[in-house]
Amino acid sequence: MAYLDNIAVFVRVVELGNLSAAGRDMRISPAVASNRIKELEKHLGVRLFNRTTRQLMPTEQGTVFYSGAKQVLEAIAEAEAAVSALSGQPRGTIKVTAPLGLGRRLIASGIPDFRDKYPDIEVRLRLSDHNVDILKEGIDVAFRLGLIEDSSLRMRGIMECERVLVAAPKYLEARGEPTEPQQLVDDRHDCLMLRFPGMREYFWTLKTRSGPAKFEVHGPFDSDDGDVLTGWALAGRGIINKPRFEVEPFIRDRRLKIILADTPPTPVQFAAVYPHKKLQDPKVRLLLDFMAERCQRLIRDILAGR
C-alpha cells in the first residue's frame, strides 16, 4: 500500500501544483508528502518534478507517469466501489463541496446524521461560494445553486428554487421602492452583488411581461460570500437577489421586504454535480439520495415557516 500511497500523493501534487496543497488535501504534512515523492522518484529512477520556489512542474517523465498513475488510482477506486456494492457495506471517503450559505444551512448539519446511518463512510466537506474545479480538486460531489454549464459533469437536479429581490424597510424609506425593474438601473439603486474571480453573472435576470430580461445593476460594494450580502441588506445598505428559502425568516419578521414581486428574478437550479464515473460508487449514490431528500424537506419547512 505504501507504493500506492506514494502514487496518490504524486497525482495530487501534479493537480494542485505544490506539496503544501497536496499535503492539506491528503491530511499529511508537506514533509511527508515530499518524502513520498522522493521515494517514488528513487523507485522509478527518474526526476518527476522541476522544482521552483512556488510550484512543482512535472518533468516530461512526470507528465507521462501522471497519465498512467491517474488511471491506476481510478481503476482501484472503481474496483473498491464494485466490491462495496456486492458486499452491501459501502465504505471510504467522499469529498464534498457546497456554497457557503447553502452548505451551512442544509448540507453541514446533515453530515453527522449521514455518518450515523453509514458509519464506514467519511465525508470531508469544503464550503466556498467560488466555482470549485471539482476535477482538479478531486471532489466527488458538488452541491450548487445556479446555472450548471459544465458538460464534463453529470448533474442530479434537487429542486428549482424561487428567487426574490429584498431590501430592508430602512433602505426603501431612504431611497424609495422601485416599481419597475428599469428603475433599479435608472435610479442607481444599491444592488449588492455576489462576485468572485471567474464569476460570469454581472447582471440580474428578471421575469418581465415580455420574457426574461437582463438588467445591468450596480452597487457600492460586493462580496464573494452570500451571507455577507444578506447582512448588508439587513443593515439597510442595499437590495439583494437571493433564493427565497435563504431570506424567508427575515421576510416573515419584516426585517426584509420583497420588492418587484410581479417581476421577480428567474428561479435558480439547486443540483448536485459529479464526475461521470462517480455514480457507479455506491457511497456517492447513498449521499446523493440522503441529501436530496433532506434538502427538499428542509427547504419546504423553511418556506412554510416551520
TrEMBL record:
Domain HTH lysR-type: from-to ranges: 1-59
Keyword Ubl conjugation (UniProt): no
Family matches, as Pfam families: HTH_1 (PF00126), LysR_substrate (PF03466)
InterPro entries registered for this protein in UniProt: LysR-type_TF_proteobact-type, LysR_HTH_N, LysR_subst-bd, WH-like_DNA-bd_sf, WH_DNA-bd_sf
Coiled coil: none
Superkingdom to which the source organism belongs: Bacteria
Biological process per Gene Ontology, one example term: DNA-templated transcription
Keyword list, A-Z: DNA-binding, Transcription, Transcription regulation
Statement: the UniProt record of this protein carries the keyword DNA-binding: yes
GO molecular function terms noted in the UniProt entry: DNA-binding transcription factor activity; sequence-specific DNA binding
CDD domains: PBP2_CrgA_like (cd08422)
SUPFAM superfamilies, sorted: Periplasmic binding protein-like II (SSF53850), Winged helix' DNA-binding domain (SSF46785)
Family named by the database record: Belongs to the LysR transcriptional regulatory family.
Protein name: LysR family transcriptional regulator
Organism: Allomesorhizobium camelthorni
Lineage, opening ranks: Bacteria, Pseudomonadati, Pseudomonadota, Alphaproteobacteria, Hyphomicrobiales
